[in-house]
Amino acid sequence: MDFDFNQEQYMFQDTVRDLLASALTMEHLRSGTPAELWGQLAETGVFALLTREEDGGLGLGYTDLALIFEEFGRALVPAPIAAAIVAGGAIARFGTPEQRAQLLPGHGEGALRLSSAFAETVATVPAAMTLTARPTDAGWTVTGSKILVPDAAAADKLLVALRFGDDLGLALVEPSRAGVTLREQDTLDLTARYHEVIFDHVTLTAGDIVGGRPDPAAVVACFDAAAAVAALQMTGMAARTLDEAVTYVGQRKQFDRVIGSFQAIKHRCADMAVAVDACRSAAYYAAWALDEAAPDERARAVSMAKSWCGDNARFTCNQAIQLHGGIGFTWELGLHLFLRRIKCEEASFGDADWHRERVIGATLRSMELAG
Amino acid sequence: MDFDFNQEQYMFQDTVRDLLASALTMEHLRSGTPAELWGQLAETGVFALLTREEDGGLGLGYTDLALIFEEFGRALVPAPIAAAIVAGGAIARFGTPEQRAQLLPGHGEGALRLSSAFAETVATVPAAMTLTARPTDAGWTVTGSKILVPDAAAADKLLVALRFGDDLGLALVEPSRAGVTLREQDTLDLTARYHEVIFDHVTLTAGDIVGGRPDPAAVVACFDAAAAVAALQMTGMAARTLDEAVTYVGQRKQFDRVIGSFQAIKHRCADMAVAVDACRSAAYYAAWALDEAAPDERARAVSMAKSWCGDNARFTCNQAIQLHGGIGFTWELGLHLFLRRIKCEEASFGDADWHRERVIGATLRSMELAG
Amino acid sequence: MDFTYSPKDLAFRDELRGWLAANLPQGWGETVFLPEDEDENAMFRLDWERKLYKGGWNGIAWPKDYGGRGATLVEQAIFAEEMARAKAPEGLNIIGRNLVATTLLHHGSDAQKARFLPKIISGEEVWCQGFSEPNAGSDLAAVRCQAVRDGDHFVVNGQKIWTSFAQYSQWCILLARTDPSAPKHKGISFLLVDMKTPGITIRPLRQISGECEFNETFFDDVRVPVENLVGELNGGWRIAMTTLAYERGPEDALGRQLVFRQELDQLLATAAKLQRGNRSAIEDGLLRQKLAKSLVGIEIMRLNCLRAFSKSLKGAPRGAEASMNKLYWSHVMQDMFDTAMEVLGPLAPLTAGDAHAVDGGRFQLGFLRSKAFTIYSGSSEIQRNIIAERVLGLPK
Amino acid sequence: MDFTYSPKDLAFRDELRGWLAANLPQGWGETVFLPEDEDENAMFRLDWERKLYKGGWNGIAWPKDYGGRGATLVEQAIFAEEMARAKAPEGLNIIGRNLVATTLLHHGSDAQKARFLPKIISGEEVWCQGFSEPNAGSDLAAVRCQAVRDGDHFVVNGQKIWTSFAQYSQWCILLARTDPSAPKHKGISFLLVDMKTPGITIRPLRQISGECEFNETFFDDVRVPVENLVGELNGGWRIAMTTLAYERGPEDALGRQLVFRQELDQLLATAAKLQRGNRSAIEDGLLRQKLAKSLVGIEIMRLNCLRAFSKSLKGAPRGAEASMNKLYWSHVMQDMFDTAMEVLGPLAPLTAGDAHAVDGGRFQLGFLRSKAFTIYSGSSEIQRNIIAERVLGLPK
Q: Which domain holds residue D180?
């Protein structure tokens, strides 16, 4: 019984935290991702971590990445990087030997960029997705679009969740393929570029499909991973905004007192601390469940984390802004970068209400209760 | 433009407040309603107030009763009294001349006791009610039950909401009628007796039906009045529990300070004060709407008040208990009498979710939006 | 109780409605809106203010002697409501019209009144407010900006923050410390500062919404003639407190409530048209509950205002209910914008410039702006202090 | 990370399961429950405690020298979980087993240990806790109950409150003021008081649920032999603080979490069977959301406990995370009981004795009891102070 990380995992966290502290300052975040970040992170092994050892990776799991994604949230590492890790993880787990051999070494080195395309204008969850590949003589043809794809323009391959007839599957498509158009999108998140990826009679073959054939379980597993990663990153953002607030109220004086000595302020910070602590419990468990749990328990764990962390990162960030007073709603302070990113993460991969419905549905089924 | 009460209305409030302060102490509440309360209140005119002048009443409206019901809540006047006023109001407005002549003078004097029967085990709102009168040669026959009827055993007539075929209607039935059985119920509310009223082939004639024939509009109007009265009483309970809390924290010392000087306590009290003030706005407007508004606006006003006052009386009472610390959860202090009563009022005449759905439905219809 | 206006008031309303219909641009609020560019926006609002003045509709609450209408409270409420209903822009000179004018009427010398008031109501001179400083926010009496007497001038040095519209202002009301040795409330003076005076630097302060409504304003050896002192030397704190008490009352809040309700109505219309899975967002029972909470919250805001307003009409002194209302509506509206983001669902991240952005990104902008609601004009923490102490009588 | 138990721990668990199955009454938790009468209930729990002792299952964390098993933290966690899973009653002597024993082990004289510990673990002597007073609740150091030295006795006069199970107790740990002139933390002593001593009066204190778990206890010239002083004269505050720090840790919280989850599972089963209009309550989307919030909240309580517990296992000192967990679960559970009342809908007002009461009124009882969750064992306000100061380092 050990719901804690081991020394290696904490050391890995320290490494990444130190790297991000110097590589990704608030200045960077305002002016766009520094080009060298991708390579610097690759050197730590984050992109190779989920790849099996026989495929040249580290053969580790999401548990080993949990603290890393928390650091990503804390430092506001731009979304394309997490999207690439999740996409690589799906290929590592569900890809054909050829796909793994072709993509994962470059991915691991940070040389080949992956991104993932899930959201549609009417859906962020697999069951509601509408983008459909229709069978042709040569394979399939796809028309439609995905939105909010993290920096599709810089990606070599996109992992796309879509329907093949009734079945969901994951396809690998390069943005340069005939019929694919990218349109950069205006979003709340100022730390990364996002694109709408428009498919106009784009041809897919079996070789493009992760695992060689549609696999709904792979789509759900990949969705769960992405949702858990969102929860972990929101945990980091919650923790960071709490820290910022505590530091500020510990220094700011009004009425000849440090405002952190006012009881109402202290109590608010205490509530935030409890919220952040519970975010960690929920998100770490979700990470563990991605590696170790059966699909039902994994879904339950992920949905608990996504709903809880969304609500509580929002709470914590809002309170951090409030506790900063007038300075809190200035552009310069930068807390709004967290606010914006959290709102995007909340809306992605199923919102809190959807995940709660999934939790209760799964629980009732496991209890064999109607409803 | 005047959303305030006039001098007469405030004076009437003072009269009733003074009466209740002496007639209904915490001791009374614990040991049951004092027998003389009914008569003392009758003397103030509360039972005759809604009765038209030509029927011997005061010809006034719910607006004139708004502050009185708030006082009822504040003093925890037992539920049968409000139920009687609402029942009398329905007879005054919708009854046949014979019904008005037969019942309202006695009701006004406090000599003839009315009560009202709305709730069923599966429903508290008209559309979901199932108690049904089936046509016979002589009229109708009723089998089924109503629950939580305030002190049915002490009532001379019960106003019962039920179905006549497809139409809802209000019937007047004396508890002694053949086929009627009363069963006293164990409830959270310790300040009054409640009964289940069981109908076993009880015969109704046209003369028993308020207005002489089923009138769904009368049922909804009576339901709205009862819901608004619940909102007004909850407003009074919220205001009272706020007052109790402010008094207590202004006296209680810990750490050598009056605890009301601790900022977290002060801020909690401020939030409670805002909640109570908004309860007043919502509940007073609902009272006005009962008298003056068309049914759609009346429904909207009442449902706003019932949902808001339910949520906020609960909030205020919970906080009052919390602010009292250990003493707050003692039987002796008596705050639990408010907690219990609020919980009963919340559950009665549509819960907050139901009323919110009614508000949004009505609003969308008025905007001619789908949904 | 009576929720109707008198025939005289209705006539006032109809006159205003007629004037607005004739003077707002064609298609206003439907196809024509405020300019998006911030400078153009400000100039548009200044032009509009001058138009209001020419029509006799600026500063309607001012005494007739100073060009106002001496409007009754009900007329002021109707004015606020009708402006909101017509989605008319708000004049630019809010500080001048409300705070400066009322302060000068109460505390200004005759010369000051004669010099300044006519140009405020006419929209010729716009004002900004130099009260807050980086270290004097909630604790306003901690102002450090110094004014040192030098002959017939004060020499001002220091920094102010949140000076809305400083870049468009000709004048500034300034709180400056004139006696550093006195207790902090007793060494402050109230000055009128010409913004053209050398030594003033304005730095726009961008908000989280990306807009620059506010500024930091720096004063570097700025010379202010002594005749621009309002009231007594070192008597500025009392004047500032009365100035802040003139912040807009329930009659104006009625206008604000209508604007909020319009925003919610737009959200309802949007929810009815937005597809969510295989139905419209408005058919989702959970969203309906959240939208209903906002509806109830905003409608009660109106009722709160009307109750406070009715007491004002009967001459009740204004008390801390302004704090109660502010605390109430700021949280209701933050919740509404949170709900708006939920209604937008998958499209919530998409902002104004995007082809898929819903309603031109208005809800995202509103969401970001709403974070300031509980901070500006007295943070929620300060409002709770005021309510606890002044309404409930709890100890300091 | 690893959520499994070792084979050795599983063997411990199986041994305990076997013992529980053999020793709990047949049908326990299904058809047979704790007695409803409070006195019978207490006696049942005392008998159960003695049975546990005889089976070697009482005070398992105690050192073997004093009759315990010296159980590991994991074994303690398993014990708490299995007791909860079996819905086994909690022994009556909670104060004795947890607070008194640990205090005496750390601060008691050899004579005190020899005299008292064996009778605690055997269930022969039940203890109560005389710490709080009407004016010393959150501010425990304000105790006024006086102990004045008179020869070889202290003479105790004063009043204590919240003395759970005083009516069933043979002994009481008492905080009394022995030096009224010293600063308030420095004049308090820690005494062991025989509840049979003349001058002690117990008055049951009814809670809002109608139950009488607590008492007020009055001391009127109660003579306590000086050998019943624990530690040094006037050194009681420090002992009391360490006593309170022994309040049950995450290993016990795991058991509490299971009990809460059982309550929620019962609520889900009830919601599935309760008719609401023309469907079951569990089919209502709004109720599902609220129930899901409780599910998530209660499951995270378990995860919080496991995280804290895992740190304990590695020897991390216990800090303020007990406050974090308490603050967390008390509010989660209050919300759950609010939701329970909503699930019951029209039947929510009906309590235990009514024919239509749902599940024997258990949720109403739980709802009423839940109001105390955020008050007892350190109110939420006190927990927030502790977290802000000790975890976040904010100033006092």
A: 127-239
Mean pLDDT of the D200-225 span: 95
Question: What would the mean pLDDT of A336-344 be, rounded to a whole number?
Answer: 97
Residue from A5, B109, A271 nearest D386 by CA: A271
CATH superfamily of B7-112: Acyl-CoA dehydrogenase/oxidase, N-terminal domain (1.10.540.10)
Listed residue (A54, A87, A62) closest to A292, CA to CA: A62
Range with lowest mean pLDDT among B328-332, B344-348, D385-389: B328-332
Tens-digit pLDDT profile for residues C206-241? 999 999 889 999 999 999 999 999 999 999 999 998
* Helix boundaries (H) for chain C: 7-23, 38-54, 73-85, 94, 101-107, 110-121, 236-245, 250-273, 285-313, 321-344, 362-370, 380-386
> What does the pLDDT look like over B243-268, one tens digit per residue?
999 999 999 999 999 999 999 999 99
Q: Are residues C234 and C295 in the same domain?
A: no
Residue in A closest to D290 by C-alpha:
A356
In this structure, the answer to whether residues D84 and D171 fall within a common structural domain is no
Q: Which of D239, D271, D291 delimits the end of a domain?
A: D239
Rounded Cα distance between B343 and B337, Å, is 10
Q: State which residue of chain D sits closest to B315, comparing Cα positions.
A: D338
Cβ of D300 within 8 Å of Cβ of A1? The answer is no
A79 and A191 Cβ atoms separated by less than 8 Å = yes
Same domain, C159 and C227: yes
pLDDT at D249: 76
The verdict on residue C32 lying in a domain is yes
How many whole angstroms separate alpha carbon B81 and alpha carbon B24?
13
Question: Min CA distance, D281 vs chain B (Å)?
Answer: 10
Report the CATH number at residue C275.
Answer: 1.20.140.10
Is C224 in the same domain as C254?
A: no
Q: How far apart are CA B56 and CA D198, in angstroms?
A: 69
Distance (Å) from the alpha carbon of C286 to chain D's nearest alpha carbon: 6
Q: Where in chain A is the domain with CATH 1.20.140.10?
A: 216-370
**Does the predicted TM-score (pTM) go above 0.90?**
yes
- The CATH class of B216-370 is mainly alpha
Residue D54: pLDDT over 60: yes
Q: Nearest CB to D310: which of A3, A308, A359? A: A3
Choose from C265, C284, C296 for mutation: most chain B CBs within 10 A. C296
Domain total for chain D?
3
User: What is the set of active-site residues of C?
Assistant: 247
Does some domain include residue D88? yes
Q: Is D381 a catalytic residue?
A: no
pLDDT, averaged across chain D: 94
Give me D108's structure tokens.
């008691």
Q: How confident is the model at residue B371 (pLDDT cuts 50, 70, 90)?
A: low
Per-residue pLDDT reduced to its tens digit, B150-168: 999 999 999 999 999 889 9
What is the rounded radius of gyration, in angstroms, for the C-alpha atoms of chain C?
Answer: 22
Selecting from B186, B189, B256 the residue whose C-beta is nearest the C-beta of D353 gives B186
For residues B188 and B177, the answer to whether their CB atoms sit within 8 Å is no
> Looking at residue D247, what is its pLDDT?
67
Instruction: For the domain made up of A116-208, give the CATH fold.
Output: Butyryl-CoA Dehydrogenase, subunit A; domain 2 (2.40.110)
Q: How many CB pairs under 8 A join A and C?
A: 128
